[in-house]
Amino acid sequence: MGDTWTYQAEVLKVIAATKQEPEWFLRFLVLDDTSKVILEFREYSNSFFFLKPLALLYMLTGNSYWWSGVYLSLFSFWGCWFLVLQLRQYYPAFGSSAIISFLFFPSVVFWTSGVLKDSVLMGSLCLSVGLLLQLYHARSAPSVALKVLLLLPCLYLFWRIKFFLAAVLVVLMGTFLLTKWATGQFPWVSSKTRQGILWASILLVGILVASFAHPAFTINFFVEHLVHNYRSLSQMTDPSNPVLSFPHLQPSLGSILWHAPSAILQILFRPFLWEPAPLFYKFMALENLFLQLLTATTVLYLLRRRQLPRLPSCLGVLLVFFFLSAVLVTLPTPNLGSLHRYRAPLLPFFLTVVLAWGPIPVWLDRVVGRRE
């Protein structure tokens, strides 16, 4: 929670400099001018960008930390609520699980509220996904144009807070929308198998094009960046607390793929309840124990039914987004406390499917039926 007080201290510096020279604030917003203030954050960092909307909120609320936190929490909630409405409209079978996952799951609510950039991340991510779902189901050109216009600022905000997650979402959903368009243009792509092959092919081409467009989008950059961050942060992580350890992680695609399953399992289920750790980690472990039981219950329920429920293609793409993002977030983050916070905006995409596929919706229907 130290980050929130750091933002408080830094934004007050910006406010003080603005009072002395009001016209400087515009240069700060537009040109990243820091000539009047000494900040801890570098100009290109997402934390520096977060200070801009935060400073505007402080000005609107009379430098109130708490009211600024309320407005940021409302933005996060608005994004979650908007996405839940889209999921309930287009995929009713996943509506109840989406409500629980996005609006009521403890760590999701806790870490995506208040004066943290995760509040902006959650709001912009959910708004972007909700608008992408609307764009996928749009029927007319004016409707498509309107959704695109609304989508662009949301994606920009998401990009500035977590550019690598935004890149994953844009590539996955962008190629998926292209696949839908191609399906309408070419009847021979009507089968689900051919659509899947076409999506994978467009995705591969998109990755190749992106790698030539900017060096930050190459596979080598991502791989080297992940391993460099992991090694750097490992040296600064307190070994007395539970940590993630990947001693054989190497800056190669093969090594990343080898460690990917472990990364996904650890972001979901660690720390474990039996690991020696401070009290705050024990609260995290209790929630993880619930996740373990929930996932195990769903797996056993599916094995008993011997039938895998239908997963809409859009939700399938969002599930892929969760798994890829989980790997990109987990591998460079040895600190489990930080990882628990970083997973909060991603977890609902996984949890929505696990809840919907398990026995809980059936139990809820029985309870409702008995009351009626």
User: How would a crystallographer describe the biggest sheet?
Assistant: none
Q: What is the tally of beta strands?
A: 0
Q: Give the number of domains.
A: 3
Mean model confidence by pLDDT: 90
Rg, alpha carbons: 22 Å
Counting helices, strands and paired strands, the structural category is: mainly alpha
| Terminal Cα span | 45 Å
- The shape, in one word, is globular
Order of helices and strands: HHHHHHHHHHHHHHHHH
Described by its quaternary structure, the protein is single chain
Strand content: under 5%
Helical content band = over 70%
List keywords for this structure.
single chain, 372 residues, mainly alpha, 3 domains, 17 helices, 0% strand, globular
Structure description:
The chain has 372 residues and is mainly α. The protein has three domains: 2-63, no CATH class; 162-213, no CATH class; 218-372, no CATH class. It has 17 helices and no strands. Helix 4 (65-90) runs parallel beside helix 7 (117-137). The longest helix has 27 residues, at 279-305. It is globular and about 65 Å long. The mean pLDDT is 90. The chain crosses the membrane at residues 65-84, 91-113, 148-177, 197-223, 279-303, 315-334, 346-364. This is Glycosyltransferase RgtA/B/C/D-like domain-containing protein. Keywords: Membrane, Transmembrane, Transmembrane helix.
List the helices and strands and how they pair.
Elements: H1 2-20, H2 22-31, H3 46-60, H4 65-90, H5 95-104, H6 106-111, H7 117-137, H8 141-161, H9 163-185, H10 192-213, H11 219-236, H12 253-269, H13 279-305, H14 313-330, H15 336-342, H16 347-357, H17 360-371
Keywords: Membrane, Transmembrane, Transmembrane helix
Protein name: Glycosyltransferase RgtA/B/C/D-like domain-containing protein
Organism: Rufibacter glacialis
